[in-house]
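Q: Given only this backbone (295 positions), what sequence would you predict?
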C-alpha cells in the first residue's frame, strides 16, 4: 500500500517515533537511489524547498523542483493528471499548495507517496521537525506544555495534532475570529488532545515548556494584512512574556519571521530561541519521513 503524508496523523504515534529514529540515523537507507522526487511549489519557500531537495540527495535520489507557472495545477491540467504523470518518472511527489484538496486529489490517484509540503490547512513536515526538536531540546515529550500565541493557522493545526500524538498539552491564545473553529477543534481532538483555549497570551505561556508563534498573515492572506496587524497587536511574543515560561522553556517559530510583529528581535536572538535547530531539523525530519514512506 502506498503511504502518503497529507497531515501529521497519517503516521501513527509509533510510526512518528520510527521516523524520528530514521531522522537521527547517520546511515539513512538509500531508498531513492536512481530515482527522482518531484517537488511542486504553488507558494514561495526557503526551508521546505532546500531541506527537501537535500533530503532527497541524502537518500540517493534526484530532486526536481517545479514552479507554479511550469505546471499549473488545475489550470494547465488537473491535480490528478499531474500526479499520474509525475509518478511515471519519480519515486515520490511533494506539493506545496493553497487548497488542501489538491494534495488529497493527487494522493487519491498517485502510485507513489505524496507529501504535503504545506497547504492552507496543514504543515505536517514542520510539525514533524518541531516535535523532533522539542524531544531533543526538552529531553522528552509526554506531559510537556506547548503554548501557541497568535494565528490558529496551518502550522498551529498540524502542531496541535502532533502534540496530541505525543501526549503533550497544547494551549492557544488567539484574538477573537482567529482561533480554531469548531471543525478545527473536532479534527484536533481526533489525536486524543483537548486544546486549552487561553484568554490571554499571559495565561497561555505561564509555566509552558515551549512558546510557539508564526506570522499573523500567512501566504495567500496578504489582502488581510492591515486588519490582521490590528487584530494581533496584543499578541507579540516579547521578553516579558518569555519570562513566564517553565525552567528550561524554549521559544520556537517555523520561520520566516516578521520581527516586531509576532515576535521581537530580542526573543528571536535570545537564549530561549531554538529556531535554527528547528530549521536544521526540517532536513533530518524530511529524510527520516521519506526513508519511512519508501521503505
Ligand atoms: N517553515 C517553512 O516552511 O519555511 P519555508 O516557507 O521557507 O519553506
Ligand atoms: N503560516 C505560514 C507558514 C509559512 C511556513 C504560511 O502559511 O504562510
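A: Predicted residues:
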Amino acid at each position: 500500500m502506498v503511504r502518503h503524508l497529507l497531515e501529521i496523523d497519517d503516521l501513527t504515534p509509533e510510526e512518528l517515533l520510527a521516523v524520528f529514529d530514521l531522522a537521527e540515523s547517520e546511515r539513512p537507507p538509500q531508498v531513492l537511489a536512481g530515482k527522482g522526487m518531484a517537488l511542486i511549489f504553488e507558494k514561495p519557500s526557503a526551508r521546505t524547498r532546500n531541506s527537501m531537495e537535500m533530503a532527497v540527495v541524502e537518500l540517493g535520489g534526484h530532486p526536481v523542483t517545479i514552479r507554479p507557472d511550469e505546471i499549473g495545477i488545475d489550470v494547465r491540467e488537473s491535480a490528478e493528471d499531474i500526479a499520474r504523470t509525475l509518478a511515471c518518472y519519480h519515486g515520490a511527489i511533494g506539493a506545496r499548495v493553497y487548497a488542501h484538496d489538491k494534495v488529497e486529489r493527487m494522493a487519491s490517484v498517485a502510485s507513489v507517496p505524496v507529501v504535503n509540503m504545506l497547504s492552507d490547512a496543514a504543515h505536517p513536515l514542520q510539525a514533524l521537525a518541531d516535535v523532533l526538536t522539542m524531544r531533543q531540546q526538552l529531553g522528552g515529550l509526554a506531559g510537556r506544555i506547548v503554548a501557541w500565541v497568535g494565528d490558529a493557522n496551518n502550522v498551529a493545526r498540524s502542531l496541535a495534532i502532533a502534540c496530541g500524538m505525543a501526549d503533550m498539552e497544547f494551549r492557544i491564545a488567539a484574538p477573537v475570529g482567529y482561533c480554531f473553529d469548531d471543525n478545527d477543534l473536532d479534527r484536533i481532538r481526533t489525536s486524543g488532545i483537548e486544546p486549552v483555549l487561553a484568554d490571554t497570551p499571559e495565561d497561555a505561556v505561564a509555566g509552558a515548556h515551549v512558546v510557539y508563534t508564526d506570522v499573523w498573515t500567512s501566504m495567500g492572506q496578504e489582502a488581510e494584512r492591515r486588519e490582521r496587524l490590528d487584530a494581533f497587536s496584543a499578541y507579540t511574543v516579547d521578553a516579558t512574556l518569555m519570562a513566564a515560561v517553565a525552567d528550561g522553556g524554549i521559544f520556537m517559530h517555523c520561520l520566516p519571521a516578521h520581527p516586531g510583529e509576532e515576535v521581537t528581535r530580542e526573543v528571536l536572538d535570545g537564549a530561549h530561541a531554538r529556531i535554527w535547530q528547528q530549521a536544521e531539523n526540517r532536513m533530518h525530519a524530511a529524510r527520516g519521513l521519506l526513508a519511512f514512506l519508501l521503505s
